Amino acid sequence: MHRRAITKKKEEEEVFETKNLGQLLADATCTPADIRYSNDLGLLNEARRQTEKILDRLWQSGRNRFGDKPRTYRKKARKDYLKVARKRRPTRSERQAAIEKQLPYLNRNLSSIEKLVNAGASLTCLSQKKYKNLLVLCRNLSSTTMDVFKRNLKN
After folding, report:
1. Which among 118, 103, 119, 8 is positioned nearest to 51, based on CA atoms?
2. What is the SS3 assignment for 120?
3. Using CA atoms, how far apart are residues 38 and 44, in angstroms rounded to an integer?
4. Could you give the CA distance from residue 137 to residue 119 in angstroms, rounded to a whole number?
5. Half-sphere exposure (CA, 13 Å, Cβ side) for 59?
6. 63 and 120 in contact (C-beta within 8 Å)?
7. Closest listed residue to residue 117, CA positions, set 126, 129, 128
8. What is the reported pTM?
């Protein structure tokens, strides 16, 4: 009898292990809610912060070779972002102006990263997640957002 109770318990444990297999999207029109537009101010701010972390890591890896740390204007960029992000309902022109202010910060960080890499900084010191952010998020985001603004200025 004792053996039967043990095997029954093991079978129940196996059933519990295979129950949760993840999230299922049942309809093709259903999408996750965390997808944001490429011209979203929060997304630009997040990309700017990620590039600042990457810059810190790259500069730290070869501090003696690179001289002074590249400027990022973190405090000013954050202040510009929070000026609009804290508002309950910012107007369209305020949002657009804030996005236009964030783009140069992001582009400056990306060019500083390029300069460090050209000077001999190794991208191997970055984690896989930071490297992916650098390649995918930041590069595509800045170019896509610039294209959107160029189109809006022409109209």
Report:
1. 103
2. coil
3. 8
4. 23
5. 16
6. no
7. 126
8. 0.66
Residue 29 DSSP symbol: T
Q: What is the pLDDT of residues 37-73, one digit of tens each?
A: 655 788 889 889 988 988 888 888 877 777 788 888 9
Q: Which of 19, 28, 38, 24 is nearest to 151 (CA)?
A: 38
pLDDT tens for 97-112 read 998 899 899 889 988 8
The tokens 């297999």 sit on which residue? Answer: 21
What DSSP line would sit under 31-76, residue for residue?
--TT---TT-HHHHHHHHHHHHHHHHHHHHHTHHHH-SPPP--HHH
Task: Say if CB 95 and CB 40 are below 8 A apart.
Answer: no
Angle at alpha carbon of residue 152, lines to 77 and 109, rounded to 5°? 30
Q: CA 14, CA 154: separation in Å to the nearest integer?
A: 62
Residue type, 153: L
Per the CB < 8 A criterion, the answer to whether 114 and 82 are in contact is no
Q: What integer best gives the mean pLDDT of the chain?
A: 77
DSSP reduced 3-state for 1: coil
Candidates 151, 131, 154; CA nearest to 50 is 131
Alpha carbon distance 101, 112 (integer Å) = 18
